[in-house]
Amino acid sequence: MKKAAIILPTYNEGGNIEEIINDIFSQQKLIENWQLEIVVVDSCSPDKTGETIKQLQKKYHHLHLLETPKEGLGKAYKKGFEYAFNKINPYLIIQMDADGQHDPKKIPEFLKEIEKGADFVVGTRYSKGGSIPKNWGIHRKILSLGANFIIRFGFMKPQVTEWTNGYRAIKTWIIKNAANHIKNYSGYVFQVAMLDFAIINNAVIKEIPIHFEERKSGISKINALQYSAQTFFYVFSHSPFIKFVIVGIIGFVIDFGISYLGIERLQKPVWIITLLSTETAILSNFLLNNFWSFAHKKIEGGPMKYFLNFLKFNLVSSGSVAIQTLGLQLLVIIFGRKLWYLYKILIIIFIIIPYSYILYNKFIWKSK
Ligand SMILES: Nc1nc2c(ncn2[C@@H]2O[C@H](COP(=O)(O)OP(=O)(O)OP(=O)(O)O)[C@@H](O)[C@H]2O)c(=O)[nH]1
Ligand SMILES: [Mg+2]
Q1: Of 28, 35, 157, 179, which has fewest CB within 10 angstroms of its CB?
Q2: Which residues neighbour 18 within 8 Å (Cβ) at sequence distance 6 or greater?
Q3: How does strand 92-95 pair with strand 63-67?
Q4: What is the rounded average pLDDT of the residues 69-98?
Q5: Phosphoprotein among the record's keywords (predicted)?
Q6: Domain spans of the chain, in order of start
Q7: Dist. CA 259–CA 266, nearest whole Å
Q8: How far apart are CA 53 and CA 57, in angstroms?
């Protein structure tokens, strides 16, 4: 029988913990192929959550307690993973809040998806059939919806609707391989980092809708400001799409800078300078994209492979020039020349950026 280790991080969940543990173990009879093991990671809660666990251990032999200092949710989870790997050797880990917001009745559904082939199952509040508490204040809704929106579109993964919720089932190999990637994230943002790592490493992701309940008792431990800042910083520094846009801006500055220097200052022939400036920008874009934006799938296989991909890159770039030239000319014919710069910006945002990003991902920096 495979083991599923459920990690329950707790800080002052004394009012909730007994009920949640009873509810989780009551699911065991519905699951034939899995042995449930619970690891409570308690950060020395002053409300004596740990004492309740010690009492419950007399009743439940598959209940473990790990006591840690209070160092944030991510740190607590990492210690819980380590404990589970060393003492339980599970096939997968289930992450779950200990405050009643995640319904234990969903556990069999998570396990079923794993049996069907998923590597990483996310309980989502934001797809059909999922929900958030009706009485959530506007600030809470904005925080949760806003964070998910920024992450989804920052990573260009609109199909993944939930990034921040902590109800998940994850195969052990993902967590073991992610150790290095998540090691610096001690707060709530580690949830985002873990899912991002899994997607980059081609894990099969599956979402199941969940109703996110109001916490049963006690107070929230989330620090909204710190969490928003860390999430924003994570997306900004890890999104291939955002990096790709920055590389495009750098390319534009290089192109414009060389043109200005050659044409204005040095008074060289326009066609020579234009050729030089555009090709330099294309080369810089190619290298920066390869070693930065798409570093996780950078070109391998020697100089010939680089050269061939650089030619492809030039071809895609020529396509951008053609689209811009024709598109702008068309709009100017239809609407007149007055707002040409606005048309140019719109074409870049709505056509050139998606066009290049999609073609780069399809033909040059393909998923490994
Ligand atoms: N061990 C440990 N657990 C923590 C820590 N911070 C939060 N937790 C637990 O992590 C889970 C999620 O934290 P919550 O405060 O419920 O966060 P949330 O669900 O986003 O916020 P609410 O919706 O207001 O409950 C709960 O079980 C907490 O007790 C920590 O520093 N250490
Ligand atoms: Mg909670």
Answers
A1: 179
A2: 52, 56
A3: unpaired
A4: 96
A5: no
A6: 2-237, 240-364
A7: 10
A8: 6
As given in the structure block, the two tokens for residue 193 are 């980092």
Which residue, by CA, sits nearest to atom 26 of ligand 1?
Answer: 97
Collapse the DSSP code of 66 into the 3-class scheme (helix H, G, I; strand E, B; otherwise coil) and give the result: strand
Task: Supply angle C-alpha 213, 93, 220, rounded to 5.
Answer: 35
**8 Å CB contact between 196 and 238:** yes
pTM (two decimals): 0.87
Give the number of the atom of ligand 1 that is nearest the alpha carbon of residue 71. 31
- For residue 73 and ligand 1, the question of a CB distance below 6 A is answered with yes
For residue 75, what pLDDT is reported? 92
Give the helix/strand (H/E) hosting 320: helix 303-335
pLDDT confidence of residue 224 = 85
Determine if ligand 1 sits within 6 Å of the CB of residue 3.
Answer: no
CB 8: neighbour CB atoms within 10 A?
28
pLDDT digits (tens, 9 = 90+) for 29-72: 999 999 999 999 999 999 989 999 999 999 999 999 999 999 98
Please report which ligand is nearest the Cα atom of 10: 1
164 CB near ligand 1 (under 6 Å) = no
Query: Can you tell me the distance from the alpha carbon of 36 to that of 108, in angstroms, rounded to the nearest whole number?
Result: 11
pLDDT tens track for 208-236: 999 998 888 888 888 888 888 999 999 99
Decide: 96 in ligand 1 pocket, CB within 6 A. no
DSSP 237-266: HH-HHHHHHHHHHHHHHHHHHHHIIIIIIS
Kindly state if the Cβ of 218 falls inside 6 Å of ligand 1: no
Look at residues 295, 197, 167 and name the one whose alpha carbon lies nearest to residue 240: 295
Nearest one of 219, 75, 99, 115 to 107, comparing CA atoms: 115
Give the homologous superfamily in CATH for domain 2-237. Answer: Spore Coat Polysaccharide Biosynthesis Protein SpsA; Chain A (3.90.550.10)
DSSP state of 131: B
Locate 88 and state its tokens.
């339980």
Give Rg (Cα) of the chain: 26
